[in-house]
């Protein structure tokens, strides 16, 4: 589960039209989130609220060994008016879904495009049709408010007296500066600071960073080609504006290639690191199963990592990762899965699940008819009759998600997340199959309420 | 009197290295490891080598059968080595990130991917120079404290010897780690080892198993003589002559006892805390020995050597009551053989009672009964404040019934020495177990034939103190020494020969020296506080004086 403040920050990116996917850091985020999702430990309660469109607060109370907590505040200069912040209306995929679809490139190159496009695309990526309808409802922020916009965030962890601070400042349409700092007395010099300069030109994105810790300097960049970037003039239309004329072309896999690299050097400790990577990812306009494949190579350490993630069905995503080290011959694999469910969590307590909105007899006939037909036809028909039902039905369609992972050391992570009434909960456990005597390594429950 | 320090008998016990390796491994993995070490540190090889350290006795504060306190100067440059195995993280960015908060992490994508490399480190050519304070008490085990940083130099060879930078780093890091180990961990390890050897009942577990293999060694000191046995004049005793030596009559045999056989020694004189039991006529000692817990039901066989020794040596029959809680509870005091057999019969019972009484463990007052009348059981008792582990309430309460039955005992015990004089030590109740119990002894006898070990072992005795102290004097002269150093040394050397009048002189001198040292220490501290943190090899001033 993404934290509320993370969700608000994503909303800020959306409102200012920043594409936070167009960076080398996010090259294999989809697979990483499907596999390395964090498991809750102990009991954790979060109360959050977007009090005004500019201001959000969040209080967290947890007990793992001792009772601890945190207080966080967030201020944005951009009003986040149409963000669903209440936990009963907040779209679950925005908080819970791991599979990310690529955003459109060059949203800043074409100022006419609505910046909220990207918000909605990231928030509700399950339905390509949704953001068409919601975009119309959203007001368009002016170009001037985008450029000067900034976000301030601070968080104080209480017994530890650890302070986190973050400033995001949009300098120009293509340039964004982030400054994050941690103050903690256990750290050397009492704290660290990280400065990040991000330059996103659509076709490529470059980041430069500097950390006070060891004087680390870093550069990373990502270059996109193929797919929507290759055809210079005609970007394929998005989402529901599917026309039959281009349908034949999209039978092929339609996606974007990205390649990039990163380079770090610690000026004080005289050490460094680097890696290279490439990715192929389908674009939202692709009509088959969305997939993402990424390969990263660390030539210094001899590490090769390949990830593959696919949204097999609307409700099911799968990811695998293989790692191999050519120097030490160590290898590692892990798989992750995400399964969405429209059942009510704890249905026996809260009542029976609501009947699915889809008429049964219709779908049965359809199924009978579809079996011999090809996939594209199926898709079209589904889309056709799903069109009127639409957004609110999609919103309520999924009430929970089961995430699971398994790795080479036979450790299983299970996470069940969903919404119960107006609470968003996350229940997870870690299981070690090697220690069958006491297999449960961790157990945790997180409950989040926001208004 | 001579001290005989044995080095190689440690290696004769093949389980010693196993135990030491285990203890080292746990000690190394106990403290939180730096992020560069990604696996457990395993001690794969450990050898103390054959070259013993040079020991110089600086001061003996307390000396008794069951306790010892002294200060040594130890120099070591031998062939001991230690091999460790672990895995290290070779990616500096990975270790860099692991200690940093994630909020300000640069979050590299793959630049921080891990590359773990198996690493083998061999430490050899260890040179030590240390001032050691050694405190031994039979009940509390062996405590060693290093007064200074003992490590002079060592050679670190590893998998990465070809890379200069890594080699230097490892050398530096390991030296620092070893200093910590010597100052903090090693005393703890030695203490635990000694507890296993002498009083396993202090350890929470594995008592029975250890008891079994420590018993044969404790039975007869002569049966397991040290490798480099010397007689009272410091000459090496031919191992082949060893059987001809008997325990009776010859005071020189004392020097045959090595460190290893201190266990056997320790059982000797619960009574007077001296090496030789005084010939008190018609006296009866009741020793609630500290070992009674350890030997549970089998204490009579264990204590027979000391019985036999003191009886035969003094030639005057006096009696002891070695009673453990098991026999006392049952109240059996028939003739000796039947007592032994009863012991075996009630072993399970006495074991149980021994375990049970441990819960009520408290400080014990050892009762020494020197009396002629029977009814003076409680009045003439002198107490020693030794803190014995065996001091449980059960055994104390039953001491009075034991006193009631004492008229039976003398003539029963007297026949025991005759039996023992033929050197047939009763190991256990059943005679067929005797060969089994003897077998480690014979193995050691075979090992004793190993000539290089005998040659290399340098016994450090008090008689040999002269040349070493002379060397130390030269060394001390090279360094800035206190004014009183040389006179005191010379005086001390002649001390044992001098008569009682010199005791006063000694006390006065010691007082003066102590005052001088204290003043110098204080001045030094006031002048240079950091000196006490980073003193390296120079011994503390207190020891330069002597």
UniProtKB/TrEMBL annotation, chain A:
It comes from the Eukaryota. It is found in: Mitochondrion outer membrane. It holds the Pfam family MDM10. The keyword Mitochondrion applies. Keywords: Membrane, Mitochondrion, Mitochondrion outer membrane, Transmembrane, Transmembrane beta strand. One of its GO terms (cellular component) is ERMES complex. It is a multi-pass membrane protein. GO terms for biological process: establishment of mitochondrion localization; mitochondrial outer membrane translocase complex assembly; mitochondrion-endoplasmic reticulum membrane tethering; phospholipid transport; protein insertion into mitochondrial outer membrane. InterPro entries: Mdm10. Component of the ERMES/MDM complex, which serves as a molecular tether to connect the endoplasmic reticulum and mitochondria. Components of this complex are involved in the control of mitochondrial shape and protein biogenesis and may function in phospholipid exchange. MDM10 is involved in the late assembly steps of the general translocase of the mitochondrial outer membrane (TOM complex). Functions in the TOM40-specific route of the assembly of outer membrane beta-barrel proteins, including the association of TOM40 with the receptor TOM22 and small TOM proteins. Component of the ER-mitochondria encounter structure (ERMES) or MDM complex, composed of MMM1, MDM10, MDM12 and MDM34. Associates with the mitochondrial outer membrane sorting assembly machinery SAM(core) complex. PANTHER family: MITOCHONDRIAL DISTRIBUTION AND MORPHOLOGY PROTEIN 10. Belongs to the MDM10 family. Lacks alpha-helical transmembrane segments, suggesting that it resides in the membrane via beta-sheet conformations similar to those predicted for other outer membrane proteins and porin. This is Mitochondrial distribution and morphology protein 10.
UniProtKB/TrEMBL annotation, chain B:
Residues 300-330, 338-350, 462-471 have a biased composition (Polar residues). Residues 355-374 have a biased composition (Basic residues). GO terms for biological process: mitochondrion organization; mitochondrion-endoplasmic reticulum membrane tethering; phospholipid transport. Its main location: membrane. It is a multi-pass membrane protein. One of its GO terms (cellular component) is ERMES complex. The keyword Mitochondrion applies. Residues 206-225, 291-502, 523-546 are annotated as: Disordered. Residues 444-458 have a biased composition (Basic and acidic residues). Residues 377-397 have a biased composition (Low complexity). It is found in: Membrane; Mitochondrion outer membrane. Keywords: Lipid transport, Lipid-binding, Membrane, Mitochondrion, Mitochondrion outer membrane, Transmembrane, Transmembrane beta strand, Transport. GO terms for molecular function: lipid binding. Residues 1-195 form the SMP-LTD domain. Component of the ERMES/MDM complex, which serves as a molecular tether to connect the endoplasmic reticulum (ER) and mitochondria. Components of this complex are involved in the control of mitochondrial shape and protein biogenesis, and function in nonvesicular lipid trafficking between the ER and mitochondria. MDM34 is required for the interaction of the ER-resident membrane protein MMM1 and the outer mitochondrial membrane-resident beta-barrel protein MDM10. Lacks alpha-helical transmembrane segments, suggesting that it resides in the membrane via beta-sheet conformations similar to those predicted for other outer membrane proteins and porin. Component of the ER-mitochondria encounter structure (ERMES) or MDM complex, composed of MMM1, MDM10, MDM12 and MDM34. Belongs to the MDM34 family. This is Mitochondrial distribution and morphology protein 34. The gene is MDM34.
């Amino acid at each position: 589960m993404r934290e509320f403040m993370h969700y608000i920050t994503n909303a800020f990116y959306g409102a200012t039209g920043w594409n936070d996917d167009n960076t080398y850091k996010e090259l294999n985020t989809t697979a990483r989130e499907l596999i390395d999702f964090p498991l809750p430990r102990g009991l954790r309660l979060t109360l959050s609220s977007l009090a005004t469109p500019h201001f959000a607060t969040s209080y967290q109370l947890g007990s793992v060994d001792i009772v601890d907590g945190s207080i966080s505040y967030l201020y944005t200069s951009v009003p986040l008016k149409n963000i669903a912040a209440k936990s009963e209306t907040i779209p679950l995929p925005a908080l819970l879904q791991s599979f990310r679809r690529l955003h459109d490139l060059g949203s800043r190159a074409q100022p006419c495009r609505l910046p909220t496009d990207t918000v909605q695309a990231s928030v509700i990526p399950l339905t390509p049709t949704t953001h068409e309808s919601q975009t119309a409802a959203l007001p368009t922020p002016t170009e001037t408010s985008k450029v000067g916009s900034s976000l301030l965030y601070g968080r104080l962890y209480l017994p530890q007296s650890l302070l986190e601070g973050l400033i995001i400042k949009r300098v120009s349409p293509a340039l964004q500066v982030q400054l994050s700092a941690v103050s903690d007395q256990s750290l050397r010099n009492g704290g660290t600071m990280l400065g990040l300069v991000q330059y996103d030109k659509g076709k490529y994105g470059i980041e430069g960073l500097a950390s006070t810790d060891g004087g680390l300097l870093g550069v990373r960049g990502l270059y996109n080609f193929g797919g929507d970037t290759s055809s210079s003039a005609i970007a394929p239309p998005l989402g529901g504006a599917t026309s039959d004329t281009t349908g034949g072309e999209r039978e092929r896999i339609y996606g974007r290639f990205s390649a990039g690299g990163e380079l770090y050097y610690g000026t004080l400790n005289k050490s460094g690191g680097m890696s290279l990577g490439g990715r192929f990812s389908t674009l939202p306009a692709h009509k088959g199963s969305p997939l993402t494949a990424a390969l990263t190579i660390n030539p210094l350490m001899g590490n090769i990592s390949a990830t593959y993630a696919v949204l097999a069905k609307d409700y099911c995503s799968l990811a695998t990762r293989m790692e191999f080290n050519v120097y030490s011959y160590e290898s590692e694999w892990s798989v992750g899965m995400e399964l969405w469910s429209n059942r009510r969590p704890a249905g026996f307590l809260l009542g029976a699940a609501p009947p699915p909105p889809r008429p049964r007899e219709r779908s049965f006939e359809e199924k009978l008819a579809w079996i011999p037909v090809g996939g594209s036809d199926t898709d079209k028909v589904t889309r056709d009759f799903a069109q009127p039902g639409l957004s609110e039905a999609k919103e309520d369609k999924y009430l929970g998600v089961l995430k699971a992972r398994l790795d080479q050391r036979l450790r299983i992570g299970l996470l069940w997340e969903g919404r119960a009434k107006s609470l968003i909960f996350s229940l997870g456990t870690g299981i070690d199959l090697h220690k069958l005597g006491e297999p449960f390594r961790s157990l945790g429950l997180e409950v989040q309420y926001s208004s | 009197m001579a001290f005989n320090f044995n080095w190689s008998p440690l290696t004769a016990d093949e389980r010693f290295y196993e135990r030491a390796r285990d203890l080292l491994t746990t000690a190394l993995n106990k403290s939180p490891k730096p992020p560069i070490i990604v696996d457990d540190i395993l001690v794969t090889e450990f050898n103390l080598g054959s070259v013993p350290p040079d020991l110089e006795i600086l001061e003996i504060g307390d000396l008794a059968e069951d306790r010892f306190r002294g200060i040594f100067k130890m120099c070591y440059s031998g062939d001991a080595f230690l091999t460790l195995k672990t895995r290290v993280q070779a990616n500096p960015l990975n270790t860099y990130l692991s200690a940093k908060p994630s909020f300000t992490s640069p979050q590299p994508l793959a630049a921080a991917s891990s590359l773990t490399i198996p690493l083998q480190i061999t430490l050899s050519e260890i040179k030590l120079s240390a001032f050691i304070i050694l405190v031994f008490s039979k009940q509390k085990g062996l405590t060693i404290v290093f007064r200074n940083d003992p490590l002079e130099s060592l050679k670190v060879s590893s998998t990465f010897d070809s890379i200069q930078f890594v080699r230097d780093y490892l050398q530096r890091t390991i030296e620092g780690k070893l200093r910590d180990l010597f100052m903090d961990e090693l005393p703890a390890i030695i203490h635990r080892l000694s507890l296993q050897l002498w009083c396993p009942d202090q350890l929470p577990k594995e008592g029975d198993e250890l008891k079994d293999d420590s018993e044969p060694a404790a039975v007869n000191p002569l049966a397991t003589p040290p490798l480099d046995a010397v007689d009272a004049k410091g000459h090496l005793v031919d191992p082949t002559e060893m059987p001809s030596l008997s325990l009776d009559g010859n005071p020189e045999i004392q020097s045959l006892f090595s460190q290893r056989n201190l266990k056997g020694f320790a059982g000797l004189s619960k009574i007077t805390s001296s090496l030789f039991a005084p010939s008190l006529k018609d006296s009866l000692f009741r020793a609630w020995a500290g070992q009674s817990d350890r030997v549970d039901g089998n204490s009579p066989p264990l204590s027979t050597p000391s019985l036999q020794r003191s009886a035969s040596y003094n030639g005057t029959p006096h009696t002891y009551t070695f009673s453990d809680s098991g026999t006392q509870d049952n109240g059996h005091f028939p003739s000796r053989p039947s007592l032994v057999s009863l012991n075996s019969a009630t072993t399970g019972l006495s074991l149980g009672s021994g375990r049970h009484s441990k819960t009520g463990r408290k400080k014990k007052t050892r009762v020494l009964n020197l009396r002629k009348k029977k009814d003076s059981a409680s009045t003439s008792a002198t107490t020693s404040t030794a803190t014995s582990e065996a001091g449980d309430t059960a055994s104390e309460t039953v001491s009075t019934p034991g006193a009631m039955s004492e008229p039976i005992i003398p003539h029963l015990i007297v026949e025991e020495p005759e039996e023992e004089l033929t050197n047939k030590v009763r190991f256990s109740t059943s005679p067929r177990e005797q060969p089994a119990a003897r077998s480690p002894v014979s193995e050691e006898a075979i090992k004793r034939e190993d000539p290089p070990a005998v040659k290399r072992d340098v016994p450090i005795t008090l008689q040999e103190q002269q040349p070493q102290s002379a060397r130390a004097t030269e060394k001390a002269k090279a360094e800035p020494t206190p004014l009183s150093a040389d006179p005191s040394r010379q005086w001390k050397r002649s001390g044992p020969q001098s008569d009682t009048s010199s005791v006063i002189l000694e006390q006065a001198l010691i007082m003066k020296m102590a005052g001088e040292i204290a003043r110098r220490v204080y001045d030094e501290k006031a002048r240079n506080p950091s000196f006490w943190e980073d003193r390296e090899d120079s011994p503390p001033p207190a020891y330069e004086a002597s």
